[in-house]
Design goal:
Keywords: DNA-binding, Transcription, Transcription regulation. This is Helix-turn-helix transcriptional regulator. InterPro entries: HTH_HxlR, WH-like_DNA-bd_sf, WH_DNA-bd_sf. Pfam families: HxlR. The chain is mainly alpha-helical. It has one domain: Winged helix-like DNA-binding domain superfamily/Winged helix DNA-binding domain (Arc Repressor Mutant, subunit A, Orthogonal Bundle), CATH 1.10.10.10. It contains seven helices and three strands. The chain has a three-stranded antiparallel beta sheet with strand order 1-3-2. A hairpin with a 7-residue loop joins strand 2 and strand 3. The chain is globular.
Length: 112
């Protein structure tokens, strides 16, 4: 029997993870951020490859958008979408609680 996904299931799948919440948190508090600025501002040691993968997932989910200015040299920025702004209260609650640590620990255990 296939379980029906709830809003909670979908939210946790889209927002939770070691890096997604941190990326969204940064973009919620900045107007637009370039790739390397975002990478440097995230606590932890995120590689460019992982950041790129997580950004693509967040774009696919409609939470952030990529702005390509088509200039030379190339300039690309990322910013939160109106849909992505709906995660603000969820992330604020996680920030204030220990839940963020619990979710990160569970993900690490699942990957091991």
């Amino acid at each position: 029997m296939k379980e029906v996904e709830t809003g909670i299931d979908i939210t946790l799948e889209v927002v939770c993870g070691k890096w997604k919440g941190l990326i969204l948190w940064k973009l919620l508090h900045e107007e637009a951020v370039r790739f390397n600025e975002l990478r440097r501002s995230i606590d932890g040691d995120i590689s460019s490859r992982i950041l790129s993968r997580e950004l693509h997932k967040l774009i696919e989910d409609g939470l952030i958008e990529r702005i390509d200015y088509e200039t030379m040299p190339p300039k690309v920025e990322y910013q939160i979408t109106p849909y992505g702004q709906t995660t603000a209260s969820f992330l604020e609650i996680m920030k204030k609680s220990e839940m963020a640590d619990i979710i990160n620990e569970e993900e690490v255990e699942q990957k091991v």
